[in-house]
Amino acid sequence: MPADPEAILDHPLLPFSKNPADAWTIRNACEGTQIFGGTGSGKTSGSGRAIALSFLKNGFGGLVLTAKNEEWPLWERYCQQAGRPLSDLIVLDPKSGFQFNFLDYEFNRPDDETDEGKHLTHNIVSLFLATLSTGEAAVSNADPFWNDALRELLTHAIDLAAIGSGDVHLPDLAAIIRSAPQSRAEIQSPTWQKKSRCFELLRAAAARAPALKKENPGRFNDLEETVAYWLSDFPNLSEKTRSIIVSSFTGKAAGLLRSPLRRMFCEKVTPATDRVRPTETHRGKIIVVNLPVKEYGEVGRFAQMIYKTVWQRATERRRLAGDWRPVFLWADESQYFVTAEDMLFQQTARSKMAATVYLTQNLPNYHAALGTRHGNAATDSLLGNLQTKIFHANGDPATNEWAERVFARKLQVRPSFSTGIGGHSQPASNASTNVHQAYEPTVPAIAFTKLQKGGVPPYVVQGIVFSGGRVWKGSDFGEDATAVMVSFPQQPEPAKCSRPN
Ligand SMILES: Nc1ncnc2c1ncn2[C@@H]1O[C@H](COP(=O)(O)OP(=O)(O)OP(=O)(O)O)[C@@H](O)[C@H]1O
Ligand SMILES: [Mg+2]
After folding, report:
1. Residue 273's CB: how many other CB atoms inside 10 A?
2. How confident is the model over 169-215, as pLDDT tens digits?
3. Model confidence band, residue 423 (pLDDT cutoffs 50, 70, 90)
4. How far is the CA of 332 from the centre of ligand 2 (A)?
5. Which atom of ligand 1 is nearest to the CA of 454?
6. CB neighbours of 450 closer than 8 A, spacing ≥ 6?
7. Contact of 206 with 190, CB cutoff 8 Å
8. Radius of gyration (Cα) for the chain, nearest Å?
9. pLDDT of 48 above 50
10. Which one of 16, 181, 353, 456 counts the least CB within 10 Å of its CB?
11. b/e burial code for range 247-259 (CB count within 10 A of at least 16 → b)
12. Which three-class secondary structure state does DSSP give residue 35?
């Protein structure tokens, strides 16, 4: 890859019409892509496949999140078809044995060249909040009170672990929270003191306090706050409040603390299993997090969201030096994986040469995942930041009407038949043909219900493409239209997977 990323931004990845000026480029890819289409409309086998192959053929590394069991074998076939060695494809799942201790990685940031951003409680807190605030039973989506209460709980659990034990591990965070005092009286109880991890670490932290006061007064203040939280604020919360905040964290964390995910994400990584750091993708590896939501459910989703967020952060921090590659973030059924951090990531994605591709059926999927507390602001912001939008056949009116607005209106010139004054029809010989001009949708909503979905000869999937700020030169929708109709051929997928799923 050239040292200068600017030099490859205009490299074409896919032709979107016969006119070479309409090529979809690395620049477009790094500005983000959203693919919409109803079930069976050809998202995966049409535009998804074409884009995935273009990335692989151009040497991209990437992260693939998985909703369905077919995702991993599909990427193996893509690699074969794109001429990529299978050694470029790394699967993170219980069977592969690879490990990624995300808290250790995020707290210690071993791949960073500077110490800036290391050992920050805030980084871990925001990692959890980003992943806990979307999807099913998202407590912090509902009310800022819960968000603040959860933030406080996590901040003090992490500070207690970091100061008391010198490190931050998920089993320890869960143990602190579960063994915290439930009342002021319990604090005095010798039985509680004996079995409480929270108390054990409070004691260890207290022993470190005098040294901390001298070496790092700021951190000493953090410790004072943390002690006050666990010995006073937390036991004074109402029982109901306490149990809601605690369970919003421990409920999700519990899945990671059980086999087989515990070994993958919470235990010490060995040199042999240390193959799935986010930085591997920066050098051209494709990491598939093979914990399909359809099979692993909520815990699979939670683990993948955490990995994704850590990956996004590592990608934001990367320097494009040495053997760097453009990278992609791939999420089919993206409604399971979207977070508020995606909007922020998109803002730096182009300068870090990172191409996000999200595929989902319709807009309501995102409204459900991101919440509608501020209208649909979160969804609007996400979609505003994914510049390329591809629409396949869809029966969802909300998505089709929204798509119509995305492509905007254009001035259409049509002949109109004029009748006489007063509206009385004139004899045909007196009628005149005028030119009538009006702003009409570039692509009316109904057009999205009629697109070809593939699955039958000629095995072609139609998609209508929008790319923010672009007009297409060779579009069937007219000169300088915001829309271009693209036909994506489907390919038979005969190859057998090298590794049973
Ligand atoms: N390689 C292929 N060759 C021919 N037909 C295919 C191929 N792959 C999928 N199909 C068919 O093409 C249609 C579109 O399938 P595809 O899986 O791409 O849709 P999708 O939009 O991704 O659906 P979903 O929302 O369920 O994931 C379906 O009828 C499917 O059975
Ligand atoms: Mg699909």
Report:
1. 17
2. 999 999 999 999 999 999 999 999 999 999 999 999 999 999 999 99
3. very low
4. 7
5. 12
6. 393
7. no
8. 27
9. yes
10. 456
11. ebbeebbebbbee
12. strand
Asked whether 434 and 447 are in contact (CB, 8 A), the reply is no
SS (H, E, C) 192-215: HHHHCHHHHHHHHHHHHHHHHHHH
What's residue 137's pLDDT? 44
Peptide bond into 260 cis (omega under 30): yes
The pairs formed by 242-248 with CB atoms below 8 angstroms and a separation of 24 or more are 242/182, 244/139, 244/146, 245/139, 245/146, 245/149, 245/150, 245/153, 246/153, 246/177, 246/178, 248/132, 248/137, 248/139, 248/140, 248/146, 248/150
At residue 392, what is the residue type?
H
Tell how far the Cα of 38 is from the centroid of ligand 2, in angstroms. 9
Residue 193: what are its φ and ψ, rounded to 5°?
Answer: -60, -35
Domain 5-97+278-420+432-489 classified CATH 3.40.50.300?
A: yes
- Based on the number of CB atoms within 10 Å of its own CB, is 100 exposed (0-12), middle (13-18) or buried (19 or more)? buried
Q: What is the pLDDT of residue 118?
A: 84
The tokens for 455 are 């699955």
CA 32 and chain centroid, separation: 11
Tokens at 15, concatenated: 């032709």
- Bridge partners of 33, per DSSP, are 357, 388
Is residue 61 in contact with ligand 1, taking CB distance under 6 Å?
Answer: no
User: Would you say residue 501 has pLDDT above 80?
Assistant: no
Alpha-carbon distance of 300 to 455, in angstroms, equals 30
Instruction: State the Cα–Cα distance between residues 81 and 198, nearest whole angstrom.
Output: 54
| Ligand minimally distant from the alpha carbon of residue 47 | 1
Domain residue limits, the chain: 5-97+278-420+432-489, 102-262
SS3 content of the chain, % helix, strand, coil (to 5): 50, 15, 35
Pocket test for ligand 1, best of 45, 71, 394 (most atoms within 8 A of CB): 45
Quote the Cα angle for 369-370-372, to 5°.
110
Q: Is 480 exposed, middle or buried (CB count within 10 Å of its CB: 0-12, 13-18, 19+)?
A: exposed
Mean per-residue pLDDT, 108-136? 82
Stated pTM of the model:
0.92
Nearest alpha-carbon partner for 178 in 271, 114, 246:
246
Whose C-alpha lies nearest to ligand 1, atom 29? Answer: 455
CB 38 within 8 A of CB 27: no
Mutating to test ligand 1, I would choose from 488, 490, 491 the residue with most ligand atoms within 8 A of its C-beta, which is 490
- Could you tell me if 394 and 41 are in contact, meaning their C-beta atoms sit under 8 angstroms apart? yes
